[in-house]
Specification:
With 213 residues, this protein is mostly helical. The protein has helices at residues 2-26, 31-54, 60-77, 83-88, 97-149, 158-161, 177-205.
Length: 213
C-alpha cells in the first residue's frame, strides 16, 4: 500500500514538473511551439515504452520502462496538458465561448474515461507494447494536425485572434501576431483603395470642375 502511494506521488510530481515547464514556456516560446515540442517528446517516450515492452521483462528493460513512463508524464505535462485549456479560452468567439469550452471539456474527460476503461483490454488483445504503439500512432497523427492547423496566439488580443481563422484557413499559421498585422494591413489597403476610388468618382461627377481647385 505504501509503495502504491509513493508510485502515484512520483507520477504526479513528474507531470507537475512538466506543467511548470509549460507555464513558463507558453508566454515565452508561444503556445504553438510549446504544444508541438510536447507532442514530439510524447511520441518519443511512447515509442520507447512500446519497444521496451515488446523486448520483454527483467534486467535493464524494467528500468527503461520506469524512466520512459516518468519522461512521458513530463513530456505530456510540458505542453499537451496545459496548452489546450489556455487556447480553448482564447480562440472561440465570445458568443460561443461558454458552449465551446464546455463541449471541449466533455470531450476531454470522455476520452480520458475511454482510455482508462479500455487500456487493460487493449493490452490483453495486442499486448502492452502494442497498446503503446497505438497511442504513439494517435500522437503522430495529432502532431501532424497541430502542425498544419494550430495558430500562434501568444501576444494577441482576444478580439484579434479571430483574424487567424479568416478564410483561407490556415493562413500564415506560424506567424501569430505578424499574421494578424498582415491581415489588418491588407484590410487597410483595401479601405484606402476604396476611399480613393470614391473620391475620384466624386470629383469626376462634380459640375463644372468644382471638384478641382
Amino acid at each position: 500500500r505504501d509503495a502504491s502511494i509513493w508510485l502515484a506521488a512520483i507520477c504526479c510530481a513528474a507531470q507537475l514538473a512538466g506543467v511548470c515547464i509549460s507555464v513558463m514556456s507558453m508566454d515565452t516560446s508561444g503556445r504553438r511551439k510549446t504544444a508541438l515540442r510536447s507532442c514530439f517528446f510524447v511520441v518519443v517516450t511512447l515509442v520507447v515504452l512500446s519497444v521496451s515492452f515488446w523486448s520483454g521483462t527483467g534486467g535493464a528493460w524494467n528500468d527503461v520502462k520506469v524512466a520512459a513512463l516518468m519522461l512521458y508524464l513530463v513530456a505530456f505535462g510540458s505542453g499537451l496538458s496545459g496548452v489546450p485549456w489556455v487556447m480553448n479560452s482564447e480562440i472561440y468567439p465570445l458568443r460561443l465561448r461558454s458552449a465551446a469550452v464546455g463541449q471541449a471539456t466533455v470531450c476531454c474527460w470522455l476520452f480520458n474515461w475511454l482510455v482508462g476503461r479500455y487500456f487493460l483490454s487493449v493490452c490483453e488483445w495486442i499486448g502492452t507494447g502494442g497498446a503503446f504503439s497505438v497511442f504513439a500512432g494517435f500522437s503522430v497523427v495529432g502532431g501532424i494536425w497541430l502542425f498544419f492547423m494550430l495558430p500562434e496566439t501568444m501576444g494577441l488580443e482576444l478580439e484579434a485572434i479571430g483574424g487567424l481563422f479568416a478564410d483561407p484557413y490556415p493562413k500564415a499559421w506560424w506567424k501569430g501576431a505578424a499574421a494578424v498585422k498582415e491581415l489588418d494591413s491588407d484590410t487597410d489597403s483595401g479601405d484606402e483603395t476604396s476611399s480613393g476610388g470614391e473620391a475620384q468618382n466624386d470629383c469626376a461627377e462634380a459640375p463644372g470642375g468644382a471638384g478641382v481647385r
